[in-house]
Amino acid sequence: QVQLVESGGGLVQAGDSLTLSCAASGRTFGSCPMGWFRQASGKEREFVAAVSRGGLTTRYADSVKGRFAISRDNAKNMVYLQMNSLKPEDTAVYYCAAGSPFTGTQDMGNGASVKDWGQGTQVTVSS
Predict the structure, then answer these.
(1) Beta strands across the sheet bearing 3-7
(2) Per-residue pLDDT at 15 exceeds 80
(3) Distance between CA 108 and CA 98 in Å, rounded?
(4) What distance lies between CA 3 and its chain's CA centroid?
(5) For residue 22, which of 55, 81, 88, 92 sits 20 to 30 Å off, Cα-Cα?
(6) Do 32 and 53 meet the contact criterion of CB atoms below 8 Å apart?
């Protein structure tokens, strides 16, 4: 398994930017697609973004496309989510997720391949 710890959440105003970080541990990190999900209060957890094992392929939810960017640094066992032009509807707890080894971003997109979850970091966007 891959252990994941998120950081970087906080309280910002609409239009601001934040970068979330996910520190991973585990020897299989480089074999796993990585992703970010979020869960707003009272709602189901939803897919936000995913990046392939090598970092060359990305996938985004329509709601964040053009505003968010996911990336990874396998040498440092890190994955990032750069969030720009934040909106109040982006308010949620954001979770880092590791997919099953040797699966792809398509599987991450529908959540079927998620193997491990972080504890989450809260992002609150005020109007």
Answers:
(1) 3-7, 18-25, 78-83, 68-73
(2) yes
(3) 8
(4) 14
(5) 88
(6) yes
Q: What token pair was written down for 120? A: 């989450």
Q: For residue 31, what is the DSSP state?
A: G
Q: 90 - beta bridge partners?
A: none
pLDDT interval class at 1 (50, 70, 90): confident
C-alpha 69/C-alpha 84 separation (Å) is 9
> What phi and psi, each to the nearest 5 degrees, are found at residue 31?
-95, -5
Q: Each residue of 24-37: pLDDT tens digit?
A: 998 888 999 999 99
Token digits of residue 31: 């074999």
How many residues appear in the chain?
127
Supply 96's token pair. 């880092």
Question: What single-letter amino acid sits at 122?
Answer: Q
Residue 68: exposed, middle, or buried by beta-carbon count in 10 A (0-12, 13-18, 19+)?
A: buried
